[in-house]
Write a structure and sequence with these properties.
Layout lengths: L1 E6 L4 E8 L2 E9 L4 H15 L7 E7 L5 H18 L2 E5 L4 H10 L23
Length: about 130
């Protein structure tokens, strides 16, 4: 089972590719305010360097928080869209063992319809500047 993992709750983003529980490739980068601009290229490069394609992914695990509102929102949106696009299972997890627990859930056949973030607090949304 080829599994993609995403963690976008901090300025340093992380994506990994696993074959079952074996780590194949890992990419971390200082995404900060450029996460939406960089995540798709990083994912494409990760797959290409592993000689894999989007259609090879059968599961996605994403860190659901708590963390940055915007970072989690972008990461979850990308993960949900990818899971839908390639018909892969998706789960979201929290805590230090989020990756391991998520992989176990996928291998057990678990899947969420839509992975939802857990921000840890109500979102603080400010008025748009004019």
């Amino acid at each position: 089972m080829l599994i993609l993992t995403l963690k976008t709750d901090q300025p340093e983003a992380e994506i990994c590719l696993y074959e079952d529980t074996k780590l194949l490739k890992q990419e971390t980068w200082q995404a900060h305010r450029q996460l939406a601009e960089t995540i798709h290229t990083k994912l494409a490069n990760l797959l290409k360097s592993s000689h894999k394609d989007w259609k090879d992914i059968s599961g996605i695990v994403c860190f659901k928080g708590p963390g940055s509102f915007t970072g989690l929102r972008i990461g979850m949106s990308v993960a949900n869209a990818a899971a839908y696009g390639v018909d892969a299972k998706i789960v979201s997890e929290q805590g230090k063992l989020w990756r391991e627990n998520g992989i176990k859930r996928l291998q057990a056949g678990d899947s969420e319809v839509v992975a939802m973030p857990e921000y840890g607090a109500e979102a603080h949304i400010t008025q748009q500047r004019k």
